[in-house]
Amino acid sequence: SKKKRQEIQRVARNMDLSGFSRPGKPGIICVEGLREHTQEFWRIIKAMHWQHITICKSELWQGKLEQRRRFDGFKEQLFCDDLDNEEGVMNMALFIKYLETHKSGYMKKELFGLE
Questions:
Q1: Comparing C-alpha atoms, which of 15, 17, 1 is closest to residue 75?
Q2: Do the Cβ atoms of 102 and 71 come closer than 8 Å?
Q3: CA 25, CA 9: separation in Å to the nearest integer?
Q4: Nearest to 27 by CA among 1, 47, 7, 3
Q5: Could you tell me the strand order of the sheet in which 74-76 lies?
Q6: Residues 6+ away with beta carbon under 8 Å from 68
Q7: DSSP alpha helices (H): ranges in 1-115?
Q8: pLDDT tens, position by position, 99-115
Q9: Is 19 helix (H, G, I), strand (E, B) or coil?
Q10: How do residues 13-53 score in pLDDT, each as one tens digit?
């Protein structure tokens, strides 16, 4: 829903998390930041009413956060050919290119079983 989408963005920005969200099916949320902030984000997001929500992968980083970030800020991404249609089908090629551009291409296997 529009309310959930706005809340996801608001909470992520307030907690200085970077990453992206993709509404629809499949819905995807990727956040990076301080461990306590990502855990609090998950606690808040999980409490919203969902048919199904799960953590696919969690990573712990060593070193300075700002040197490890892959994403600049938190944004909603649609990965659709038709940007005017928010309910559009996700273009997998656009999504994988986005992941690879942000040094996260390895996640295609975690998310979809693709090599």
A1: 17
A2: yes
A3: 18
A4: 1
A5: 28-32, 18-22, 74-76
A6: 32, 61
A7: 2-14, 35-46, 65-68, 92-101, 107-112
A8: 999 999 999 888 887 66
A9: strand
A10: 999 999 999 988 888 999 999 999 999 999 999 999 898 89
Nearest to 12 by CA among 24, 21, 1: 21
Residue with tokens 């600049």: 72
Token pair of 1 as six digits: 């829903």
Distance, in Å, from the CA atom of 27 to the CA atom of 34, rounded to the nearest integer, reads 23
What's the chain's Rg over C-alpha atoms? 14
Q: Which amino acid is at 82?
A: D
In eight-state DSSP terms, residue 30 is E
Retrieve residue 45's tokens: 């997001």
**Any bridge partners for residue 96, and if so which?**
none
Q: What does pTM read for this prediction?
A: 0.86
